[in-house]
Automatic annotation (TrEMBL):
Pfam name, any one: Lysine_decarbox
SUPFAM superfamilies named in the record: MCP/YpsA-like
Family: Belongs to the LOG family.
UniProt KW Hydrolase keyword: yes
Protein name per the record: Cytokinin riboside 5'-monophosphate phosphoribohydrolase
Domain of life of the native organism: Bacteria
Record-linked PANTHER family: LOG FAMILY PROTEIN YJL055W
Lineage, top ranks: Bacteria, Bacillati, Bacillota, Bacilli, Bacillales
UniProt keyword terms in alphabetical order: Cytokinin biosynthesis, Hydrolase
Native organism: Staphylococcus marylandisciuri
Length: 188
């Protein structure tokens, strides 16, 4: 595992803990020798993780659709910028570049990107590690929803720990490093 894609918000949230812990995650990733693959934004949680990686001497690969490059605040500090034609191409390129996936706090776009990797794992498109950085207990409602999907039979029980919620950066990287593939879903 060399590169980790992080799906997260271009907003910083209402509590300063989100930006602080995102920065700390980026710094810790670089200190552990991991490169960051991300959406190339310079603001919010996305920018904080990038800043942490770069401040610790790490390497960042940003993937930005050309249409957003003209509208959003594309990072000028990114180690490597890859411009693509569409959001679909961005997601595909990030998945191709990454050896593991993390979701940190963000909005609908972060959820959408993350759940594509989650469902792709279930159907066998990839068997890469997935983790959720549960800053400030942000993703506990999501965990309740996933548990309900399992209890109601919409997600197989074996995927209960497919994307564990991790409250610390150390726990998060440990879970990625020790990931055991869960196999392709069955249709029983």
């Amino acid at each position: 595992m060399k590169r980790i894609a992080v799906y997260c918000g271009a907003s910083k949230g209402k509590n300063d803990i989100y930006v602080k812990q995102a920065y700390d995650l980026g710094k810790y990733m670089a200190e552990q020798g991991y490169e960051l693959v991300f959406g190339a934004g310079s603001v919010g949680i996305m920018g904080a993780i990038q800043d942490g990686v770069l401040d610790a001497g790490g390497y960042t690969i940003g993937v930005m659709p050309k249409m957003l490059d003209e509208k959003e605040i594309t990072s000028q500090k990114v180690s490597e910028l890859i411009l693509v034609e569409s959001m679909h191409e961005r997601k595909h390129k990030m998945a191709e570049l990454a050896d593991a996936f993390i979701m940190a706090p963000g909005g609908a776009g972060s959820l959408e990107e993350f759940f594509e990797m989650y469902s792709w794992s279930q159907i066998g498109i990839h068997q890469k590690p997935i983790g959720i950085f549960n800053i400030n207990k942000f993703f506990e409602p999501l965990q309740h929803m996933l548990n309900a999907m399992i209890e109601e039979g919409f997600i197989n029980e074996k995927y209960k720990n497919l994307a564990p919620l991790c409250d610390t950066k150390e726990q998060l990287l440990y879970s990625l490093e020790n990931y055991q593939p869960l196999g392709v879903r069955s249709y029983d």
